[in-house]
Amino acid sequence: MLIRKAPDFRYSEITPKQVYMNRRRFLATAAIGGGLAAVDARAANPYSGVVKSPLSTTEKPTPLNAVASYNNYYEFGTQKEEPAQRAKALKTSPWIVSVEGAAAKSQKLDLDSIMKIAPLEERIYRHRCVETWSIVVPWIGFSLSAFIKHVEADAKFVAFETLYDRKIMLGPGQAGIPLPYVEGLRMDEAMHPLALLCFGMYGEPLPNQDGAPIRLIVPWKYGFKSIKSIVKIKFVQKQPPATWNITNPTEYGFYSNVNPAVDHPRWSQGSERRLGEFTKRKTLPFNGYADQVAQPYTGIDLRKNF
Length: 306
Description:
Layout: H1 17-29, H2 34-44, H3 64-67, H4 82-86, E1 96-101, E2 107-110, H5 111-115, E3 121-128, E4 133-143, H6 144-150, E5 157-162, H7 172-175, E6 182-186, H8 187-190, E7 196-201, E8 204-205, E9 215-217, E10 230-236, H9 243-247, E11 271-274, E12 280-282, H10 290-293
Parallel strand pairs: 1-10, 4-11
Antiparallel strand pairs: 1-2, 3-4, 4-7, 5-6, 5-10, 7-8, 7-9, 11-12
């Protein structure tokens, strides 16, 4: 299977969608040849035309407007509709990610360098919030394992940290959580092919409120494990802190695997409602990815180690 390589131009040079669409209409009107127009389209949007991964679900994606208007991003508001408005202030270019800890290639990488580590591909994943709603999204990125191999990490855990800019974001008291937001994975979880380092969705760069310009997607875990707007990746030997586990360890465990048999203290996890739908559906163990991911947790009591 051929997968298109990441392009040789910078994230900061990507044409905004509105400008790109106007440009495309102009080319059509001017009757410029189809070959030139196709080149222009690819240059304007490197997220279009990427190959769909066989890891994708066959489920119908949730409409983009629903995914982009209903978000958990407490730095930009504790109500689901607030991040779409407030995150507009987030400047996503230039963007630097600091690689630290037990990695041979500890360094600071800009987004363009990271995006060239491995081919981009589209993965249509189910995504389950810790509350009672879920989405299906065509994410664009590559396996986190490719990044880990690139920096030559040798650790038991990997820790992540989100950007925290007090000038544009809420303070911890307003957000109700300690900031900056941090998360972590066991190394075998991070190396699993389903764990995705994500840069786009629906054929476009990530919207700010959905974690631009780089985020994590771990589809068999509750959504808060899929940390947004990453600025630090650190490889460590001890289990790293995780924001919601720090905030309320009796409600949010470090693993946070989707488990319909373990209710949240304030609501059932046994069912969910897909955004844009009215009928509830049963929540599946590991969010429906049990066949792929259950084996590493063999022998672990997931009711106690939730």
